C-alpha cells in the first residue's frame, strides 16, 4: 500500500510539473517583467490548492458520517477549485499549448498587415475622401468653363459666342470659391479676356489655365488632403522596424525556434514595434484603406491592442475562442489541459486518500 502511494505521488509530481510549466509559461508571457521563479512559485501553490480542493470535494461526497462539516468542505472545495483551476490553471495551460503552435503565424501576419498600412502612410498613397469630393466640384466648374470658352456652349446647352468673357469667367469664380476654402494661395488667376481671338489662341489660354489648375490641385492635395510629412516620416521608421522584426521572426521560424523560450524577447520586441505602428496608423487612419471593418476597428480602437499582444494574454485568447474568433482547433488543447489536470488531481487523491476530521 505504501509503495502504491509513492507511485501515485510520483505520478502527481510528473503531471503537476507539466501543468505548472504550462501555467507559468502563459503567465510569464502576460507578465514578462515578473521574475520567473516568482511565477513558478505562484503556479505551484495554485495547483496544490486545486488538488487539495478536489480531495475535499470527493471526501465530502463520499462522507461515511465521520466528517463534521461535509457541506463546508464541499462548497469550500468548489470555490477553491473554481478560482485555482477554472480561472488560473485551465485557460493558461490551453493557452501555452496553442501559443507554441500558432505564435509564428500570428506575429508574421500581424507584421505583414501592419506594414501594408504603414507603407500607405509612408508613401502618401491614399488621399482623404474629402479631396475627391472637392476635386469633383472643381472639375465640374472647369468643364463648364472649357465648354463656354472653347465652343460657346453653357452648362444648360444655350449656344453663345466662344471665347473667354464674363460668362466663361463665372465658372472660374465658382472654381476659385471651392479652392479658396483651403486658402487664397490655391486659387487660379483669371485668364485674360479675349476679343475675337482665334481658336488656336483660345486653346493656348485654356491649356495654360488647365496647367495652373493642375498645379494648384497637386499642392492642395499634398498640403492638406494627404498624410502630413511628419506622419509620413514616422511611418517610414515603422516600416523599417517592421521589416527588421520580420527578418528576425522568419529566421526563428526557419530554425524551428519560434515556440522556444529563447524566442520570447523577439516576440516581445515585435509587439512593441507593432504597438508604435498601430498608434501612428490610428493617428492617420483617414489616409489608410483597411481591408475590412474588423481591421479598421482593431487599428483605431480607443485602447490599442495589437494582434500579437492580445495573443500573449491567455484570457484574451480564451475570450476570442468562446466568441468564435479563434479556430476550433483550440478545443483540442483545452481538452488536453483538462485531461492533464484531472490526472494530477486523481494521482493526488490516490496518494493522500484518507478522511479529514473537519
Task: Describe the model.
This protein is mostly helical. The chain has three domains: 2-98 and 332-351, no CATH class; 103-126 and 229-311, no CATH class; 129-225, no CATH class. Helices cover 73% and strands 0% of the residues. The protein is built from twelve helices and no strands. Helix 1 packs antiparallel against helix 12 (330-351) and helix 4 (129-151) runs antiparallel to helix 5. The chain is rod-shaped and about 120 Å long. The chain starts with a helix and ends in a 7-residue tail after the last helix.
Q: Given the structure, what is the number of helices?
A: 12
Strand proportion, as a percent range, falls in under 5%
In total, the number of strands is 0
Mean pLDDT: 88
Please mark out the parts with pLDDT under 50 across 5 or more consecutive residues, or reply none: none
| Number of separate structural domains | 3
Radius of gyration: 35 Å
Oligomer category: single chain
Shape: rod-shaped
